[in-house]
């Protein structure tokens, strides 16, 4: 039998002869593994949180893609239709004054008269065809001392006319003639006009039939002391479209070409004026014995 010396003994133990060495305890080994795992989990906590966030985000994206339908493929025809729509919306709209003029021009006439001491008729102003029966609404003062009255339609046809109803308070008169089948003007109330609205005037300044001038409505309910013999006029529409001699009797129309007033004139009988007045059609037609609408 071999004896061991003290140097051969493990530190802290005593020799017990030839007794076998103790085997490792399995329970203790399991505890060591769990502890190692806990330490590892603590060290990688931040990485775990990042991983969970990434997985959650991927899950949300996947669910969203599953719920949202796939975009439909655009056809060539749809592209062409979209281009046409865009071009149409970008195309400038027709000028309002042009459309209004086209709507009313066939209902306007040039008014000519001759006094007793004149040998021929000459241009005095304009008129608006009220109905297909040949009644024409115009300004009373341009018919003063008339021994003969004629009207000229837009196509150059000329007819003799006679004075019918008149109302000096509004400077309006109705001419009657035997022509039928002509296109009457469309009338509209002036009550909807506002200061700043466009003033579109169609008349025959200086005898130039169916001429157009444009301005704005500058005042409503104005009064006017006319330069011709007659009484003071009130309740007028004031505008700044340019007026010339013979502009009286013309039409003040809205953007649709509807006649809303009859131009009575401006401060001057002989010169150009940048200020004009018109009698609302509501009053003008009624005063002349015609139903306005």
Give structural notes.
- The protein is α+β, with helices and mostly antiparallel strands and 293 residues long.
- It contains 5 helices and 12 strands.
- It has helices spanning 26-43, 45-67, 76-90, 96-104, 281-287; strands spanning 108-115, 122-129, 135-139, 146-152, 158-167, 172-176, 198-203, 211-224, 233-239, 251-253, 259-265, 276-280.
- The strands form 2 sheets. Strands 1-2-3-6-5-4 form a 6-stranded antiparallel barrel. Strands 7-8-9-12-11-10 form a 6-stranded antiparallel beta barrel.
- A hairpin with a 5-residue loop joins strand 4 and strand 5 (158-167).
- Residues 11-17 have low confidence and may be disordered.
Topology of this structure?
Elements: H1 26-43, H2 45-67, H3 76-90, H4 96-104, E1 108-115, E2 122-129, E3 135-139, E4 146-152, E5 158-167, E6 172-176, E7 198-203, E8 211-224, E9 233-239, E10 251-253, E11 259-265, E12 276-280, H5 281-287
Antiparallel strand pairs: 1-2, 1-4, 2-3, 3-6, 4-5, 5-6, 7-8, 7-10, 8-9, 9-12, 10-11, 11-12
Number of helices: 5
- State the major sheet: 6 strands, antiparallel, barrel
Question: Might you state the CATH topology name of the domain at 97-287?
Answer: Thrombin, subunit H
Shape: elongated
Summarize the structure.
The protein is an alpha+beta fold.
Question: Keywords for this structure?
Answer:
alpha+beta; 293 residues; six-stranded antiparallel barrel; single chain; six-stranded antiparallel beta barrel; Thrombin, subunit H
